[in-house]
């Protein structure tokens, strides 16, 4: 067995640069950290370029690594330099970007789509992708100035779902709304001030949900592009719901209506 | 106007000790950080002992402070030592503990109760309390070895809802389940392996939801105490849902059924 590479090794240093968004975007590569993420990446043909692993993790996660062609053993310090986790599990994959063109997402009669406009918190973005996956959505569109879906926190919070869900990145939220409507979906904006109560809405048809920023919600000009603005009723004294929480309630209510 | 107190002042130092759980528990006091939290606390009679504020924040949040008897002006360094926020808003309240006896929570025919058993993440706990508030739940019971609800992260994630919702702390989860059932509620355990599909369950009657730890869920012996074990259907390839997300879907589905 070869000697583990150290943090100063050129390949380790090059991989470490993927912690920067600009480098990720330029190289169209990102890091997937931990066994869940590496397993998800390894199941996706053509996704994994290389997996860095500590000797201990190589033995512990042999089942995950069996599908990986290029496995590189590194020491604990090198692993710590690649992982953004406080206690690294010992394996990090260099992965190719996953996003697909908007046309791919809107082809083939989608039933349930998610558009996130200007979502900024990496954990929220990952959690929304995970929830969309669980609710059976066809795809998630990250629109506007949204967080980088290849941020390690987003990848981690998605618990593998970034590798399951078709993801599209669209700079202009209005273009995303138009494309989703053209695909045959009613576009519903989640809006605390919306005129339709979620639980009184007819959600049986193909639907595209539009969610706004976690702090300031959907700006009026975007909300007005939707076919309806839908509010989750607040029965108590809370002012609002967390974005990922609100998305979960909307998506599961939609999924239940469509499948009834 | 008096000179702002510094970080070395005895009262500031004593308040700062409330960042430790042991001191919070012993004194039955905690810190509420930021305008939302201080406003929530100030509206609750008898809750606020004292508010520490920077000169700038005193001017900016005069409307919040008008209801507070004891306002103490401190300098920016003293504020930074009291706040656990990276960018403190400039006001922190010393508050009396809010939790009520379990008997208070189960009195008066509750319709929707939440039991969290061994919930460990402070942000998750706060988010569940906020969601329970929004969904119109009557109270949240933190059972077993759950996170301290007076943790600053929990208070912040609740966005004021710790001041709205009756909260009970119960060391023994089984005792909480028994009390909720005695109050006339069907106890439903949220369990990924549950035998009842959430969207096929009859949720019209009074209900107590039982949620487990974010990592390992509900242990079998606790799940078996519930009347039914209810699963949220996973339509896609996600393995599970985030705890706060799952709680939101369960509580809103219950609330919608009860109010239909």
Automatic annotation (TrEMBL), chains A, B:
Residues 31-101 form the RNA 2-O ribose methyltransferase substrate binding domain. GO terms for biological process: methylation; RNA processing. Keywords: Methyltransferase, Transferase. InterPro entries: Alpha/beta_knot_MTases, MRM3-like_sub_bind, Ribosomal_eL30-like_sf, rRNA_Methyltransferase, SpoU_MeTrfase, SpoU_subst-bd, tRNA_m1G_MTases_N. Pfam families: MRM3-like_sub_bind, SpoU_methylase. One of its GO terms (molecular function) is RNA methyltransferase activity. GO terms for cellular component: cytoplasm. CDD domains: SpoU-like_rRNA-MTase. PANTHER family: RRNA METHYLTRANSFERASE 3, RRNA METHYLTRANSFERASE 3, MITOCHONDRIAL. Belongs to the class IV-like SAM-binding methyltransferase superfamily. RNA methyltransferase TrmH family. This is RNA methyltransferase. It comes from Nocardioides piscis.
């Amino acid at each position: 067995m070869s000697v583990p590479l150290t943090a100063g090794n050129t390949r380790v240093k090059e991989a470490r640069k993927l912690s920067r968004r600009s480098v990720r975007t330029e190289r169209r590569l990102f890091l997937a950290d931990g066994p869940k993420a590496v397993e998800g990446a390894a199941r996706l043909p053509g996704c994994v370029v290389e997996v860095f692993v500590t000797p201990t993790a190589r033995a512990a996660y042999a089942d995950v690594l069996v599908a990986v062609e290029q496995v590189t053993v590194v020491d604990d310090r090198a692993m710590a330099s690649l992982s953004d986790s406080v206690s690294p599990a010992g394996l990090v994959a260099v992965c190719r970007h996953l996003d697909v063109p908007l046309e791919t997402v809107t082809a083939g009669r989608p039933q349930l789509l998610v558009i996130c406009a200007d979502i900024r918190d990496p954990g929220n973005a990952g959690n929304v992708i995970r929830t969309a996956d669980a609710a059976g959505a066809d795809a998630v569109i990250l629109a506007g100035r949204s967080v980088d879906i290849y941020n390690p926190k987003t990848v981690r919070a998605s618990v593998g779902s970034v590798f399951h869900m078709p993801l599209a990145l669209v700079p202009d939220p209005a273009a995303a709304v138009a494309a989703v409507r053209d695909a045959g979906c009613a576009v519903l904006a989640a809006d605390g001030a919306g005129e339709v109560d979620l639980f009184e809405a007819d959600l049986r048809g193909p639907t595209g949900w539009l969610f706004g920023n976690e702090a300031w919600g959907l700006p009026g000009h975007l909300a007005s592009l939707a076919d309806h603005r839908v509010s989750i009723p607040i029965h108590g004294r809370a002012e609002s719901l967390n974005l990922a929480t609100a998305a979960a309630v909307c998506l599961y209510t939609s999924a239940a209506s469509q499948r009834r």
